[in-house]
Amino acid sequence: MGITGYTIFGLGWSLYLLLLWRCLKTEQWRSYPFFFGYVFYTFLRDVVLSALLLLQYGAYAKLYWLSFMGEALLWFVVTWEVLRQTFPRGLGPRRIAAGVLISVLFLLALVFYFSGPQPGAYFIADFVRKIALSVTVWLLVVLALARYYGISVGRNIWGMAVGLLVVVSAHIANFAAVEISPSFSPIWSLLVPLGSTFTLLIWTVTLWSYVPNPRPSVPSEPVQQEALSYWEERWAALGMTIRKAFKP
Q: What confidence tens digit (pLDDT) does each residue in 164-217 have?
């Protein structure tokens, strides 16, 4: 690891500690338990992996991929935090956004099943890439729905969403570059650490103080009903298409 790697590593640890300290000081973990659960997991993961890297490299290599897959699954936890804070319980568009999540997860399962990824680390890398793509789509849909319905997204939630988009985009770009040519690996090896560090910077700045989302005004009943009816029709059409595709 060169001077650049050590600098990124040190900056990342500093931002982790600063973010967790502000979390405890402002008690934001009570308001955003899912988000800070993810932050604590990634912090603890990095602590354990750093210790294993120095003491037992074989165990480090095995735990790295397993814990990486766990981190990728927790990206959905952060997206759920964004959704539930943007669309409080009882708001019509929340059902639409939740339906999008179900659709994305279902399509992810289908693509993952039929794509036939290679075993081992390639299996996990392929799994993480599909999750990253799914999370990106879902976050963009949630933000688009908020804009469409005129729902304000506060600084805390906006920072969560943008930071997560940065880190998942870094992983997607990294996997794509390595697949094009392994020779890109040394060049792109710093992309994910840089993306993670930039994400921590975004989260530290935007969550420095607690700024809850403004309470959204509920759209009129006809508007809610029209949107929900449209979504239910699209979901029924998707289910019918899938059934026809698998019908013998």
A: 999 998 888 877 766 666 665 665 567 778 888 999 999 999 999 998 887 765
Structure tokens that stand for 10 in this block: 């040190």
Which residues 6+ apart lie within 8 Å of 154 measured at CB?
A: 85, 211, 212, 213, 214
pLDDT digits (tens, 9 = 90+) for 50-95: 888 777 777 787 788 888 889 998 999 999 899 888 887 766 667 7
Q: Quick one: three-class SS letters along the chain? A: CCHHHHHHHHHHHHHHHHHHHHHHHHCHHHHCHHHHHHHHHHHHHHHHHHHHHHHCHHHHHHHHHHHHHHHHHHHHHHHHHHHHHHCCCCCHHHHHHHHHHHHHHHHHHHHHHHHCCCCCHHHHHHHHHHHHHHHHHHHHHHHHHHHHCCCCCCHHHHHHHHHHHHHHHHHHHHHHHHHHCHHHHHHHCCHHHHHHHHHHHHHHHHCCCCCCCCCCCCCCHHHHHHHHHHHHHHHHHHHHHHHHHHCC
Express each pLDDT in 133-150 by its tens digit. Answer: 888 888 888 888 888 878
Q: Do 229 and 95 form a contact (C-beta atoms < 8 A)?
A: no
